[in-house]
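Quick one: structure tokens for this chain, please?
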Amino acid sequence: MADYYELLGVSRDADENTIKKAYRKLAMKYHPDRNEGTKDSEERFKEISEAYDVLKDPQRRARYDRFGKEGVKGGPGAGGPFQGFDIQDAIEIFMRDFGAGGGGFEEMFGGGRRRGRGRRKSRKGESLRVRLPLTLSEVVHGTEKTIRVALLEPCERCDGSGSSDGRAPQPCGSCGGTGEERVAQNSVFGQFVSLTTCRTCRGEGTVVSNPCSACHGEGRERQQREVQVEVPAGVTSENYITIRGKGNVGSRGGPRGDILVLLEVESDPRFSREGNHLIIDVPVTFAQAALGADIEVPTVDGTTPVDLPSGIQSGQALRIRGEGVPDLNGGGRGDLIARIRVWTPERLSSAQEELFRELKALEDPAPETPPDEGSGSRRGFWSRVKEAFTS
């Protein structure tokens, strides 16, 4: 796909108003309804709508400028972090900003307000939001989950028509099929007329003369369904997954909405996470710290052997490469940072106490400045971790 700025024909420093005007002009040219739904116009309309949806948002635009298209996966209107952008998204973006009272819609189609309302006879179903808890192990390896959701499905009794006798819905007599009604209000400045959703047909534009007793004319009923969710490795609680076309069915035979899966990564008491790196505190004894030792450091999947160097100080960190969290976009795997904590026993046996007294008589005095706080070769833990993350 071409660069978003090139698609809209604007410079990289174009302001929001310029971007909006450029998109409106192109949308009026390539809208499928103006080109008899040709494949080329539909694809072009989809591309410019995706570009506009990103560039009009300052935060998403900044991420796009820095990282390209990969940086804006999962943003609003982009269909979630692991899904594509389809023609339905493009239509909704256009209708949102230019459809009802946004300017250009009537000019584009001529009487487009009524035409737009007519489509409400079979509206797309509402998107459904569900929360999916994940363990750290599932985040590291990726997983496939089965979730159980309550979805609006076509009514079995009326086969989704909403009518008990099978008759097709008729235009609403209150709004004339537009789905809107005019409300007049008087004020000190005169009479104001505003448009609001029709109370008779609830914005549908049509009514069912003999509603189904099971669904009350809605054409839908709620049922339990199981849905498969594929979760890639490396996600965070800030990510979500959009499952397209698996959500609630639209009213009176309308297309299905989406399912938005909100990810919730459960905390692991052993590790803290910094980006793709994991940090763990590893307790060692005086003797191990002074003499060095071969130790086992816990990982997400078990343990890994680590050579503890002699003379290591409490708070120093060892980096274990490739034992962190995979990059979501396939850029490798982070590291495990083992933060050494020298353990001081609270109780000593008589033999241990005797040995420590002998050591006390032989050992050198402690330095005046703690190693982790001094400016010498022993630097603080976080400065070493920062260096490990950026190297």
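The longest helix spans residues 39-55.
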